[in-house]
Specification:
Keywords: Signal. It comes from Marinobacterium aestuarii. This is HEAT repeat domain-containing protein. By secondary structure, the protein is mainly α.
């Protein structure tokens, strides 16, 4: 009987370690991460529309709104007014780790995310 429970526990632990898990907070965060993952110079028109929907959605967190709007308006680099809002997110205690990571990536963005940033984004997808 004891062995049966041990086997079940081992199977559960292995499944938890092997199963792919999205680390994105919400669908909005995951959408932002997905768009940023394929970002090259500026968001595609469809991506920009998705970002603006997130920014206007009352169900989106304030952090999601700030990051989505900043990414929607990005051309090669984040605009200075968006950079100030992203910096405030980094200093806030009320922001998820994923939104903080996306804000940090946007602040360092130069035409497209770095390889290191791409690895961070990929974990969120």
């Amino acid at each position: 009987m004891y062995l049966k429970y041990v086997r079940m526990l081992v199977l559960l632990v292995i499944t938890a370690l092997v199963a792919p898990v999205s680390l994105a907070d919400s669908p909005g965060t995951k959408t932002i991460a997905n768009i940023l993952y394929s970002f090259n110079h500026f968001p595609a028109e469809a991506a920009q529309k998705s970002l603006l929907r997130i920014a206007q959605d009352p169900g989106s967190s304030e952090g999601e709104k700030v990051v989505a709007l900043a990414l929607a308006r990005t051309e090669h680099k984040v605009k200075s007014e968006d950079a100030a809002a992203l910096e405030q997110l980094l200093e806030s205690d009320n922001v998820s780790d994923q939104i903080r990571a996306l804000a940090r990536i946007l602040l360092h963005l130069n035409h497209k995310p770095s390889d290191e940033d791409m690895a961070t984004i990929k974990v969120m997808l």
